[in-house]
Amino acid sequence: MITLAALLAFTGFFCFYNTSKRQKLSQSLGIEVWLQQNPNRAKYLGGAQFLIALLLCLAAAGFGAGIFSFFILLMTAGSLVVVLAPIRFLNYKILTLIFVLSLIFELI
Question: What is the pTM of this model?
């Protein structure tokens, strides 16, 4: 459940990152073009993903620890997006591999 919350926090932050007008944004993923052309929808989508990730953290760890773990996930996801997105390291294959490995380690 924490893996899914981390994925949602990561993709939610990625949605907000692609609505920025300050950065020169890449368009290596197909979804980036849509996010940049529809900033209002992207912000609603990112906010919904943040809310679902927060609810998953609350369900997994309780109230106080869930909020704390959500903010830790949010800071980690934000740092990774800001560092990895400009060098175009993010693609579907890498994200899927990381998610599957993390899910396997969580369930073992």
Answer: 0.87
The identity of residue 88, as a single letter, is R
Cα–Cα distances in angstroms (integers) from residue 107 to residues 2, 3, 37, 53, 98, in the given order: 11, 10, 38, 18, 14
CB proximity list for 9: less than 8 A, separation 6 or greater: 49, 50, 53, 70, 73, 74, 76, 77
Q: How many CB atoms lie within 10 A of CB 49?
A: 21
Q: How many other CB atoms sit within 10 Å of the CB of residue 96?
A: 10
Q: What gap in Å lies between CA 18 and CA 35, rounded to an integer?
A: 6
Query: In whole angstroms, what is the distance from residue 40 CA to residue 97 CA?
Result: 30
**CA-to-CA distance for 18 and 25, rounded, in angstroms?**
7
Summarised one tens digit per residue, pLDDT across range 37-79 is 899 999 999 999 999 999 999 999 999 999 999 999 999 999 9
Give the position of tokens 């949602």. 8
pLDDT digits (tens, 9 = 90+) for 76-89: 999 998 898 878 77
